[in-house]
Write a structure and sequence with these properties.
By secondary structure, the protein is an alpha+beta fold. The protein is built from four helices and 14 strands. β2 and β3 form a beta hairpin. The protein is globular.
Length: 230
């Protein structure tokens, strides 16, 4: 594991750092509170039990989507958000596919689905069953729950555009814990920062913070639905 503390405090900077190392960086983690980026020499394939929930930290691993579905995500910094030990209630899954070889195959099935818009999927490492849903933890948050099975992977499709009709809710004296990008050019007001978040394309920007003293705009793909999930 190679660490670069102090200089890499947001997701996109850490991602660029990892991309430059190619195959030598299959995964990385970001500690947002300590502004620390750790390059990892292995991913979680067959090692799900090694992933430990930590507040203020996210884990990312590279996936190689195949075929036409890859184009839907080509401009995205990440294609799916994965939460271990969480799921939607059973009645919300529209389709179940048995004997799916891997989590990546399940993600591709979600992207390939045409009979409905697949917003999330569920993959069970033990049973290899893949379930697809038109709902996610934001469309029906009261039906999203924790399970005792850490082999269950909740997978949320990030290649779909965020619903721009939803208004922002202001929280005073706060900023996103999980900062994914810091924009320092052309930010002259809170309104400009908000517009930048709404129109951002590398990830679905769901929250932002504007710092008028230095003209910085902090963007995050997290909101209350995901920022507190373990």
């Amino acid at each position: 594991m190679v660490s670069n503390p102090g200089s890499l405090g947001n997701t996109l900077e850490c991602q660029e750092y990892c991309q430059r190392d190619g195959l030598d960086c299959p995964a990385f983690s970001v500690n947002y509170q300590n502004m620390r980026c750790d390059k990892l020499d292995r991913n979680s394939q067959g090692r799900t039990q090694d992933l430990i929930p930590r507040d203020g930290e996210n884990y990312f691993e590279k996936i190689c989507l195949r075929g036409p579905v890859a184009t839907a995500c080509k401009d995205r910094a990440w294609a799916f958000e994965r939460v271990l030990g969480h799921e939607l209630e059973a009645q919300l899954y529209d389709r179940a596919v048995p004997f799916v070889q891997s989590r990546r195959d399940c993600e591709e099935l979600c992207l390939e689905e045409r009979s409905f818009v697949c917003r999330s999927a569920l993959y069970n490492d033990d049973t290899t069953e893949c379930k697809l849903s038109r709902e996610d933890r934001r469309t029906l948050p009261s039906f999203y729950r924790r399970t005792n099975n850490m082999k269950v992977n909740y997978l949320e499709n990030q290649c779909l555009p965020v619903l721009t009709s939803c208004p922002y809710e202001e929280t005073t004296d706060s900023y996103p814990t999980y900062t994914d990008h810091i924009q320092m050019v052309g930010i002259t007001s809170n309104e400009v920062c908000e517009q930048f978040c709404t129109q951002y394309r590398s990830f679905n920007c769901r929250s932002y913070a504007y710092y008028s003293s230095n003209g910085q705009c902090f963007l995050s793909g997290d909101d209350r639905a995901s920022g507190g999930s373990g």
